[in-house]
Amino acid sequence: MQIRKEALPDYDTVYHVVQQAFKQAEHADGNEADLVTALRKGSAFIPELSLVAEIEGKIVGHIFFTKGQIADKTVLALAPLAVLPTYQGQGIGAALVNEGHRIARQLGYDYVIVLGGAYYQRFGYVSASSLGIAAPFEVPDEYFIAKKLNPHVALLG
């Protein structure tokens, strides 16, 4: 498996991957692929943090991080993480998350937030409120989670 930065010719394939990954997902609204398309056009888009996973030249996964603002601090938002259903459970999502975190640290980001569940705990995500981060909308505490990428920064909030 190879993980690399997404390129313009990948956009259609990534759209399909995201669509297929969320087709049967429990907490999907069906707009995840359109969200990626819209976010690419905005000022929060970070090309270095839109990554694809390839197996034998076929794109099988995608992860997308964008810039967000919490108080006076720029943070990253992870959304979405997508792996084709036939490739799920093989560590592709984990590899994308870990590589995204590595690049985010190199780029100087201190925090990542995600609206997610137990899957992300294996990467060190905890309730965002425990890091001093308040959700910008109504959401159960256990689903609005965050990871501190830099252990030396102060808590937000």
TrEMBL record:
Organism: Enterococcus cecorum
Keyword Transferase: yes
Domain N-acetyltransferase: 1-150
Domain of life, per lineage: Bacteria
Cross-referenced InterPro entries: Acyl_CoA_acyltransferase, GNAT_dom
Keywords: Transferase
Entry keyword annotation includes Transferase: yes
Any single Pfam family the record assigns to this protein: Acetyltransf_1
Matching CDD domains: NAT_SF
Protein name: N-acetyltransferase
One Gene Ontology term of the molecular function aspect: acyltransferase activity, transferring groups other than amino-acyl groups
